[in-house]
Each structure stands twice: as structure tokens, then as C-alpha cells.
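Re: the 770-residue chain
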Amino acid sequence: MKSPHRLSMFSASVKTIRSDQNVSISSCPIRYYGVEYNNIYIKFTNNKLAICFDAMYNVTAVGDCIIGPKPVASVDFSILQTAVRSRFQNVSGTSNCSVKFEAQLTSGRFTLNLFNFGTEAVMSVTSTGAMVSLMLMLIQVFLSTAHVDISGCRDAGAVYKPGSVVSSDPNTCFTRTCDQVATVQNSACGALETCLGNGSCGHGAICTVTANTVIDIHGKLKTIEDRCSYTLLSAPSDPDFQIVAHFRERRRTDVSFLESVVLQLNDVGFHIHLDQGNRFVSLQLNESLLSLNSSVRSIQGVLMSRDHRGVTAEASLSGSTASVFFDGHMAQIHVEGPAVKTLGGLCGKSSADLSRLRSSDSSCQKKHQQSPDSSIDCMAVAERCSLLNKPPFDICHQHSGPQPFITACSQTLCEYPALDGFNCQFLEAYARSCQLNNVTLKTWRPGASCPSPQAFCRDRTCSDHEFCGEKTLGGETRCFCRAIFASKYRTSDTLGEPTVCNQSSASVILVGCLLEDKGIKHSALHLNDDTCRGVMDPLDHMVTFSFNGTNSCGAEVTTDGNKVIYTNTIKTGNITTGVITRHDQVYINFSCIHTQPEVKTAAFKIKDRSVEANITTGAWNYTLTMRAYSDPGLSQVVDSNTEVQLNQKIWVELNTVGLEGGLVALVTDSCWATKDQPPNSTVRHDLISNGCADSGDQTVKVMGNGLGTSNSFSFNMFQFSGSSTDVYLHCKLELCVKSSKSCEPTCSGNSRKRRSVRYSATFISMTWTK
């Protein structure tokens, strides 16, 4: 600690004190740890010198005293009118006077100065001999040459150093502090502020709910791990008012999201439901939609409005106000007034037990597991979320710490893809929280590549098993299937429910959002009769196809013994242009079987009538299909219901999708049949060898081999001797790059024309059940 800088000095007379006495220091009062004294009491004991401020030293009741070693004979006392500029750490200003004591000790000369710095004071000690032991406020210090800050504040007999808190009540936000110049200062919330009940003041209490995270009014983060409903806000002073949040899954089964918010006014039996489409639904009015715009509308005392950013509802709450904003992703609750201190729910008490705030439906608590999304870069996510630590967001930190928002952002986007606006949603939530605290935030969206705030999926209505999301990042929106709902269909590779059969009708229900997942418009689908189309339910978006005895819609009727089989097909219309198509072709067979006299129903799932494989060969990716037909026109597909006789001619077509016909050709190198599934079975019958009909089977004919992206061949049906089991058909294929030479094999005689550049072979197999 540096010495004081002495500006000028005017000395008073020195008084030599040899016995106990009281001396006045009114011309230079000293504040000793927060109490100002005008007198000093000097007492000589057997082995000590006591300099006290409040009374003569009493060993049984030590007061405000400085106790040091006893002088040899006497103490010289003087008051100096000294101008000293402070160079003491934590002490500011100028001292205009000081009280000085000098004494001869057995070990050397001892000087003690008490400097008056107004509300502060400093004790300076100089010893020419050994280190001096002093007792200050019952604390022993050892000094030779040093300065001690004896400033402070007193409260209820306790001493507080400058810069410390004297007392604080978090419920009232009333705080008493000992400031840096050793005076007690009282502080409380401003006239426009509210005590949040945690010792901090704000322009009301703010609770933010985004995805499955809740940041309560105390800045504590909670995570919802199920798909239940929870009480967000309640007030003991108004038990009939509650705000409830519903959570559901979206693209993943293991991450839930805020789906909707409900304001419950139980005293009048009135509930207001705010959903993802930014609609207001009054449950009291038979779930009717309420027409709202930017003008404020009062409904049962709740002030409601809607703009391009979202919807807002404001209600009175026992002398306070509670405002709820919802934009389809994020809900922000802003409460102002005395009710803030007693708020309950997820937004209120940080120690609340989640189970007590959850709805009683236990089915929503089931945990689901899903493999992590390997496309998510959690390091990049953390870096983006940490933007909240940087300008211009730093201006918000004094009112609302960013860490819970950063944690919520990182935790969510490390598990869930940054689609549907979530790449900016947590930044948006923090910015809005900042603005609710009356902080002017500079422009931040261009730097973060975020669009202007806008309600997500506004006016789009999805069913209960759907949610609204983006088709592509920042692109158009549509209704997607919720992950748990869709899982049962995706696991079984179906697009809808099993066939429903009655005595004279049959129907199939397809899931609209699953069709959209595959880029299929339900309006493009029809039955065998293209005038029979599906009907979409406007509420649940399920698509129903049906036929009956009055209108068979082209159903094929066949008999099998005492069974009558009705079969129809859901298919796409003719949307092919030229020789290519850019749309998925849909063929979904469904059948009903009637038996006499009792009618029984069997439902058939969608099954391929062919073998299909995604092939990667060389530089091209393509899809290869092998189908069997019973006619040379390749129109009568052979499937599991087709009866095939021995020696009946069968045509097999090998067709590709995704190859450029001007560049490559498909060559069938060889085909053979086995009685076992592995293509290298020891028992085999060759049909095609080296691109030509094998000489061992005179019934084989090969058509169009090497001429384009498809070819076919025919043979007479057979079975292996001594066996009635399945026949497995295998083909080895090659891609031929077209050049000046032909890709077509030469099959006359034993010679064969050399083909152009070839790629490695591909195998495809199909099973034939006799």
C-alpha cells in the first residue's frame, strides 16, 4: 500500500500523556469502522496501552479500541491539520487532518497516525524497532511500517467492510449495502420494476418455453422428457387461473416440443387454446375458432390479439397482469405485479416437483429411444448457440443471463435437426426476453442469418397425429406425421391401415402425411377405374379408397373353390411424359375374400409384384426391377396368386430406372435357376450364358439384350426333378458404355462380338413358387 501524499501541514501543540485520561479530538473526529468519535480514552495497564473511542478500556468488555504495547514512560499526542491526498487502496479523497500518537518502546520508537477521510479512515503505523503487535476489533495484527483501512459500516453491532452487503431480503428485494466510501445505502426495485422474489428486480417476471425446455422466472432451466401436459403458471392468490402447456413429439420419437398453450379461467369455465397454427380456440364456445387480428379483443376479460409474429393473450391476476405470447414454437409468459413473488408451476418455484405439475395421463410418460442423428455437428451447434454471449446480445446480460438459453439451445439442437425455424428460435427467444426488460437491442438477425420474426405455420391446420414443419430448411411448410404415430407404418413398410371388408364392400385408409413423405399427392391416386378416387378427411387427413357391389370401381373378381376374391389396386394416374417419369409409380393391391356360407375377411398388405434393388455399379446409380409375365406383351404380371403350369411359357423382363439410355445399355450376361436360395447352389439349370440363350435349354429366347436400359427373355416353366419346392431365378447383369461398337451380344454360332467398356457384374434374384 502506497503512502499518502502530503500536500500541507499545520501542527498543533504536542501533549505528553503519562496517566489515564480522556482527550478531545472534535477538531479531527475519526470514524472507526463506521462510527464517528470525538473523544479518545487513553489507558495504561501493566503491559498494554489502550487507545479507545467509546469508553475507558475495560478488560472484561473490550469496545472500540486499538491495543498495543506499553510505552516506556509516556505517549505524545497531537492533532495535525494536514492535507493528505489518499493513495491508499480502496480509500478515495483527501484527508484534512489526522490524530498522532508517538511513544518510546523498549524496542524502538513507535508512531501511530489516524487519518480522517470523511466517512473513511486509515491507520498508519511506523516502528523503528521490532514489529509491533496491535489488536483491532479483537483481531491481532503484526506491523512494522504499514497502513490499515479502518473504514466500515455498522449494523446491529456488526461491522461490514466497504463493498459488502449488510442485509438483503430476496422476497422484497430490499438491500442494505456498505458502499465503497463506508456509508450504508438502501436499495429496492424502481417504481416501474417488480421484485421477482429471488432478490432481483425486473420489468416483470419472464418465463420462456421453447422446444422441450422451460426457463423459469428465476433463470433456472428445466427439461421436459415426455409428451405430457404441465402447469406452467399458477397463482395462490387466484386459484381459478392457470396456464397449461402441452408437449408432443415431432420428427423424432425421443424429443418432445411445446405444442400448444391453454389459458384456463376455471371460475367461468372458460379455456383458451393457442395452437401451432396461431389460432385461438374457445373451448367454452364448442371449440369454435375465434377471429382475431392486430386489434385487441376482450373475451371474458382476456385481452387477445394477433399479428405476423404470433398471438398474445393478457389476463388480470389479483392486481397483477399475465401476458402470454405464442408463435407456434415458443411461448413467453410475462407477469407484472405483486403476484410474481408467489407464482407456482414450471415457470414459478424452481424446486417444484415435475410429477405434481404433470397431467394424470400416464400413457404420455412412456420413454422412447432413437439412434442419434449422425448428421448433426454438436460442436457447430454449440458455437452457434454461444452467439448469445457476444455483441449485440451482451447488453442484455445485466437483466437476463444468457447461459440457460445457451444450454437449452445446445441441448436441443444437438439432438434434433435445425429445421422448422429452430436454428434461430433460441436466439429469438433471448432477444424478446431482453426487449421485455426494456433493453434496446441492436440489429442482430442479419449477422446470425435469421429472418424477421414471423409466426411459424400460421393458419396451417394439422391433425392430432401431425405437426407443421418445413419441407426444406427455410422452405415451404406442410403437415408431417409425428414420429411415434408413423413408426408402426414405417416398421411394416406400409402406407396405411389394413383392408376393411364387409359383405359387399371393401375399403382401405391411407395416411395422408405418409403419402406426402413419398411425394405422392392423394388427388393423383385412383382405383382400377380412374373415376374412383380417394376421399381425404379434412380433420385427420386420412385418405379412404373403397368399392362396393353397386360400384366395383374396376375390381377384379375371381373364384378359388368356395372362395370369392375381390381385388382392386390403388395406383397413380398416367403422369409419364415421353420416355421418362419423375414421379413415383404407386401400385397398392387390396383384396377381400368371401367364403360360403360364412363370410370371412382377410387383409393384404402392400407387396411388390417384382424383385427390386438399388444398384451402384461404377459411376451410375439405378434401380433394377425383374418381373415375370404370362404373356408376350408383358401385361399379365405373374404374382403369388397366379397359377403356372409345367411347360407354360413365362416371360421375364429386366428393367432399370435411373440409367441414361443414350450413354449406357443393360446387358444380361447370364441367368440360371437353383432349387436353393443361394445363387451358387450346386443344383442349377442355366437359361442364359454369355448373353445368349443357353444351348442346354431350347425353350429360352432372349430379346433386346444390350440394346437399351431393359431387356427380356422367355422360357418354358419347369421344376427340379424329385422336388416340388420353390425355384429361385438369378441373373448376372452388366452395364455397357455405348461407343462406336455395339453392346449387343452376338449369339450366332460360337463367336461373340466384343462389347464396349464393361463394369463389374450385378446379381439379382427372384423366387418362383410352383
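The first helix runs from residue 354 to 357.
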